[in-house]
Amino acid sequence: MSEYTSQQPVTDWGRMQSAPVRAVVHPADEEQLRRYVVDAVASGAKVSIRGIGHSAGGQSFYRDAVMIDMRHLKRVLEFDAGSRTIRVQAGASWADLTPLLEVHGLSVTTKQEFDSFTLGGSIAANVHGKTIEFGPLIESIQSLRLLRADGRIINVSREENADLFPAVAGGYGLAGVVVDVTLALALDRVVEKSEVILMRSEPLCASYIQRLKSPGERPALCYGFLDATCSQGFYVTYTHAHENGDGDLRRLKRNEPPPLLFNAFVWLQQRSKFARDRAFQVMVHAASHSERTLRSRRLLLWDDIPGAFDSMLLQKYVVPVERFHEFTRAAGQIFARYPELPLLTNHFRFVPGNSEALLALAPRDSICMIPCYLARKDDARWVEKLALATHELLDAALALGGSYYLAFDTLATPEQFQRAYPKAKAFFALKRAHDPDETFSSFFYEKYGAISPLTKTGDVSSGGSVLLPKRNARQLENAR
């Protein structure tokens, strides 16, 4: 059953904490998955669930737990192009679906900026993407099958076991293991870059909001970047092409610099203030070219995650649309107080409101800002400064009626978490009603949801938060 012993620590992409696990298992089919859970329960072990491990808030692992790596469960089970639906196992990645969907001119409604994420992990985080046409992933979930701690697999939808539906999407695996999911699909359309707007921060925010609210057809995508001081920025707009044109639409490509070039760009930012001071102008220049591509391709940056992302740390804050400039102004002041935390950039985009999930990121229409730090995760002073800045940024967002993205954060206090997610108590109560032994657990659950401390074994401190030296980061790659 075990690939790693309890002496083998694992971590996630955030690499802000680690813990030894009892086992990392890779079920090859549904019955093996069920058996792993049943055996773990019989042995008294906790269970955590992982796709590619790209969360950063301790949601996918726990000390002395059985970690289930879902990536071998990736079959497409049903596909109906006419009704625009697909049923697929939870370990499949977006990349596993793309070749099939493109042939039929279809795409998923929402996904992250890389195709390597698994569907199960995407459901767990209730992800949203760059599109402004569709809300978070929960909107396109028609039904799913869920493996419970007692070994039963049940159907979950808005009609069947409906109380669980808003707890599974955005629930970070605490309600059970998603076995497979049926998603609604969308027609894939050609989009064209129609404008690039460069301004100082305050008029830029006003212009961006006005663009989102402009009468007529909404743009397909509209997102932008602020410099490291939040003093200036730009946004780009993509509109639907009126005619798709002739020829094979699959030939349309994204105009994105190769990952190796991006890796070199980040390498320079990490080592040179001169390069950092000019990074924003480089990004403006890169955005200035024209582009015609498929909407599904423009949702992505790259198919796979460039290696440079391992040396970065992302956070995501959301505020109501009308409070966006207030937040950027506050964030700029906070960043100025922490020069020890160099930033690559600040990305921003519209987040359509949706309150269906119990842990909904943005119940109302919002704009998110994503600071991208050039991280030094092995430097205790850097981590200390990051925690201080994060608490200030969280307070600034919360004061404006905003929130933050759980998958990118391990630093929020329980009080900040409760303010950002007012339905959290209901979520955790529902989790315990369906999983009274708290079988499905994680460091995220221990910090924010457990009524009393979970059973602690192993040789990691009670909080499970330990800085990882660089040598271990490479050793842990296979467990991420």
Short summary:
The chain is α+β, with helices and mostly antiparallel strands and 480 residues long. It contains 15 helices and 20 strands. The chain folds into three domains: 105 residues, 2-Layer Sandwich (Uridine Diphospho-n-acetylenolpyruvylglucosamine Reductase, domain 2); 105 residues, Uridine Diphospho-n-acetylenolpyruvylglucosamine Reductase, domain 3; 225 residues, Alpha-Beta Plaits.
Describe the secondary-structure layout:
Layout: E1 9-10, E2 19-20, E3 23-25, H1 30-42, E4 47-50, E5 66-69, E6 76-80, E7 85-89, H2 94-103, E8 106-108, H3 119-125, E9 141-147, E10 153-157, H4 165-168, E11 177-187, E12 190-200, H5 201-213, E13 221-226, E14 232-240, H6 259-271, H7 273-277, H8 279-287, E15 292-294, H9 295-298, E16 312-314, E17 317-320, H10 324-337, E18 343-351, E19 366-374, H11 380-399, E20 403-404, H12 414-420, H13 424-434, H14 443-448, H15 470-475
Parallel strand pairs: 3-5, 4-5
Antiparallel strand pairs: 1-2, 6-7, 7-11, 8-11, 9-10, 9-11, 12-14, 12-15, 13-14, 13-18, 16-19, 17-19, 17-20, 18-19
Helix pairs in contact: 5-10, 10-11
The main pleated sheet reads as: 9 strands, antiparallel
What ranges have pLDDT less than 50 throughout 5 or more consecutive residues? 456-480
| Overall mean confidence score, pLDDT | 87
Provide the gyration radius in Å.
22 Å
What is the CA–CA distance across the termini? 18 Å
Number of domains: 3
Strand content: 15-25%
Helix and strand content put the structural class at alpha+beta
How many β-strands, per DSSP?
A: 20
Question: CATH first level of the largest domain: which class?
Answer: Alpha Beta
CATH architecture of the largest domain: 2-Layer Sandwich
Residues in helices, as a percent range: 25-40%
| Form type | globular
Query: Which fold name fills CATH's third level, the topology of the largest domain?
Result: Alpha-Beta Plaits
Supply the number of helical segments: 15
